Amino acid sequence: MTGLQRLSDVIGRDVSRETFEKLERHAAMVREWSVRTNLVAPSTIPDLWERHVMDSAQLLRHVERPGTWIDVGSGAGFPGLVVAVLVSGQPGWHTSLVESNRKKVSFLASVKAALNLDVDIVPQRISTVVANPRQRPDIVSARALAPLLDLVTMLEPWLSAGTVGLFHKGREFHGELEHCRRMFAVDLIEHASAIEAGSRVVEIRGLHRLDGIDARFS
User: Fold this and answer.
1) Alpha carbons 11 and 191: distance in angstroms, whole number
2) How far is Cα 204 from Cα 202, in angstroms, rounded to an integer?
3) d(CA 76, CA 205)
4) Taking the CB of residue 126, how many other CB atoms lie within 10 A of it?
5) Half-sphere exposure of 38 (CA within 13 A, CB side)
6) CB-based burial label for 77 (10 Å; 0-12, 13-18, 19+)
7) CA distance linking residue 192 with residue 62, whole number of Å
8) Which helix (H) or strand (E) holds 127?
9) 213 has pLDDT over 80
C-alpha cells in the first residue's frame, strides 16, 4: 500500500496527489525547523509521518459534515494544520489554529505561506479565544495539550453550547475520564486509534457541569 493509499484509508475518503504532497512538505518543514526550534519531541522525528501526520489526519474519519474547526494549542500544526490541508478547497470548511508561542506561530505562518493555505492563525491564548462568544466553532480539536478535566474546563463554554470536541488520548484516558466525571456529565464516544494501539480519539458531543460544583474548587 502506498503512502497516499494508506492516508486515504485512514481518513475514509480519497486524497489527491497534490494534497498528499502538501502534507509531505509540512512534514519536511517540521524536520527542518526542529533543528533549531522544539516543535515536537525529538524522539518522534524518525517516525514523524505516522506518529504526527497520520495520527492527526484520522480525526476526519469522525466528522460527518463540513463546518468551522478550531484547533487549540496547535504547535507544529498537529492536528489542525493537517486538517486544514486535507479540507483545503472544499466548500463549507473554515479552519483556525490557536497558538500563543511566538516561534510556533512563526512556523505555522511559514507553512501557510509555503502551501498557500486558506487557514487562520490566531496568536492568542486559548482562554482569550474561548471567551469571545462570536468564536464558537462547530468542531474543536486538541492533541497532547492537557488532561481531560483541564481540557474540558478550558473549553466548557464551547462544549456545553454544542461544539463537538475531538481529542487524542492515550492509555491513561480512563483515569482522566473518571476524574473528569466528578465535575462534569460528559456525553462522549471513544474511537480506537487507527494509528497507535491502546490510544483513542475521544469525541465529546455534550458537556454539563454537575450541580453545585465550581471550577475554582476542582
Assistant:
1) 13
2) 6
3) 26
4) 21
5) 3
6) buried
7) 11
8) helix 126-130
9) no
Enclosing H/E stretch for 142: strand 139-142
* Residue 210: DSSP 8-state: P
pLDDT for the residue 151:
96
What DSSP character marks residue 12? Answer: T
User: Model-level pTM?
Assistant: 0.93
Task: Give the three cell numbers for residue 212.
Answer: 453545585
Residue carrying the nine cell digits 456529565: 185
Q: What is the pLDDT of residues 23-64, one digit of tens each?
A: 999 999 999 999 998 899 999 999 999 999 999 999 999 998
Q: Give the pLDDT band (50/70/90) at residue 212.
A: low
Helix, strand, or coil here: 117? coil
C-alpha cell at 108: 505555522
In the predicted model, what is the mean pLDDT of residues 78-107? 97
For the CA atoms of the chain, what is the radius of gyration? 17
Distance, CA of 13 to CA of 20 (rounded, Å): 13
Distance of CA 69 to the CA centre of its chain: 9
Kindly give the interhelix angle for 102-115 and 80-87, rounded to the nearest 10 degrees. Answer: 20
Interval 99-113 mean pLDDT = 97
What's the CA gap between 177 and 189, in Å, rounded? Answer: 12
Distance CA 215, CA 125 (A): 19
Angle (CA) 24 142 169, round 5° = 95
